[in-house]
Here is the input.
Amino acid sequence: MDSLSYLSNADPALIDNLYQQYKQDPNSVDISWRKFFEGFEFSKTNFDDPDSATAQHLQKEFKVLNLILGYRSRGHLFTQTNPVRSRRKYYPDDSLETFGLEESDLDTVFQAGSEIGLGATTLRNIVEHLKATYCESVGAEYKYIRHPKVAKWLEDKMEGSRNRMAFSKNDKKHILHKLNQAVAFEHFIHTKFTGQKRFSLEGAETLIPALDAVIEFGADLGIKEYVIGMAHRGRLNILANILNKTYEDVFFEFEGKNLFEESNIDGDVKYHLGHSSDIKTSNGKDVHMYLTPNPSHLEAVDPVVQGIVRAKIDNKYDGDENQIAPILIHGDAAIAGQGVVYEVIQMSLLKGYRTGGTVHLVINNQIGFTTDYKDARSSTYCTDVGKVTLSPVFHVNGDDVEALIYTIKLAMEYRQTFHRDVFIDILCYRKYGHNEGDEPRFTQPLLYKAIAKHDNPREIYHQKLLEEGSISEADKKAMEKEFKEMLEVSLDTAKKKSKGSGLEYKDSAWKELQFPVDKDFEQSPDTGFNKKKLKAIAEQITSLPEDIQFFKKTLRLFNARKKMIEGDGKFDWAMGELL
Here is the structure.
C-alpha cells in the first residue's frame, strides 16, 4: 500500500487533532502518524524559513497531493465522454492554478508521484497520468465511497492501467465483428421493414461487443448465469446478437405471423419479448442467459429481475452470489425519473433482498422522448441515484468501444469482489426519434443536425483499426458482405414459414410449459377442495401452542377465527385468504 495513502484520504481537522495529541504524548498515536509528525517537527526545526527553497518545495508537494485528490474527485467533470456535444463547463476547473501551481512547476520532480504509482517524477508526468486516467473516454465517480479498502482497490485498478487495456489483433477483429453485427442488423431491418417500430440501438451499438465481453469475462470469474432486464430500445439487437435468438425468428415476427406453433395466441409485440439460451464461451465455459420479457413500461422490470436472481441464488445456487448476476439496462430519462429505480436500488444491500450486486448499464441518449436532459432532471448525471448505495459510477464515451469493454470488465470484477451495485453511464445518442416513426428534428433540430453528420461506432472503430494496421479495407468489406448475405437467407426462410417455434424459453424450469389450445376453454375445471380437509387445516392455523404466553389481543383474534369455523361458515377476508 502507498505510504502516503493515510494522508491523502484524511480530513485536515483530523490531522490537526492527531498532531495536538502527538504533542502531548507521542506514543498515543499510531506509529505511522508518529513518524509523519517527527518529520514535520524536523522540518519546522531545520527549515523554519518559509521563504527557503526547501520549504517552498515542501508546500508544493502538498499542493500536488491536493491536485491528485482533485482529479480523483472531480476529474469526471472534465472528460471527453460526449460523442455528439461539447461538455458543460464546471468551475473551478482542472488548471494548475486551481491547485496553486504554475506552468513553471511542470518539470519539477515531486515525491507525490508515489501516490499514483509513478514514484518521484515531474509534475508534467503526474498531470498527464491523471488526465489519461480520469479525463479521457472514461470518467469515474467513487470518492464518496466510505470504505478506504474499496476506494483504494478502484484507484489501483484505474491508475495502474490509466483506465484502458491492451487488445490483441484477434481481439480487435472480434470486437469489429460484433460491432458489424449490431450496426448491420439495425440497418437491414430499417430497409426491409420500413416504417415498423423497433426501438433501434443505433447510436449505442457498442453495447453489443460490451455485453459479449462481459459474458466471456464473467464466466472466467465464476458466473454461470446472467439475468438481464431492459426496456424496448435495443432489445431486438440483444436478442439476436447476444442471446442468439435466430435472425430467422426475429424476421418471422416482423412478418406479423403467429408466433406460437400450437396456439391461437398472438403473443406480445416483438420488442417486449424475452428469451433464454445457453452459451459456450471461447474458454469453454457454459453460461445461461435469460432476458426477461418487459411488456410494461421501462423500469417496471427492475424488481422482477432482482426477484428472479434472488430466487435462483437461494434455490439453485445454494446462496452463492458469485454464480449468477443481474444486469439492468436503463434509459437515461427513466433511471433519473422513475421512482421504481430508487425503490429497487435502496434494497440492494438488505439481507432479505440482496442479489450480490447489479451491473447497471445506462443507454444515455441525452434525451427523454423529446426533452433535453438539461430540462429533465436536477442532478448533474442521470446516474446520481447510484450514490444512494455508495456505488461507483463510470461515464464512458459510447463511441469508444475499447473503453466501454474495459469499463464493463472492471465493473464485473468489482461486482464479484465486493458484491455491490455498479453503474456505467454510456454517453451516446439516438439516431432516430423515440421510435422510428417520430421526427426528432421538430423538437431537437441542433442535436439531430450533429447526429446526422456523425459516423456510427463501427465506422469509427474500423477507421482506428485501419490507421494502426490491425485490419484492411478488404477484410471489413468481406465481413459486411458475408453477414448481409446471411441475413438475406434468414429473411427468405422466415417468409416461407407459416408457424413459429414459440420456444422463447429454453430454461429447464419452463421446458414443460404448455400453451393453451381451444379445447382448454370448452368447460370450467373443478377448482373445489375437500371440505373435511379444509376444516382440518383451519383447525391447525387457528390453534396456538398452550406452553407459550401470547398477547391478549392475539388470543382474541385466534379465538374469533376459531368461532368462524365452528359457526355458520361466514368468514372475514383475512380468514378467507388464510385458507
Summary: The first strand starts at residue 109 and ends at 110. The chain has a mean pLDDT of 88.
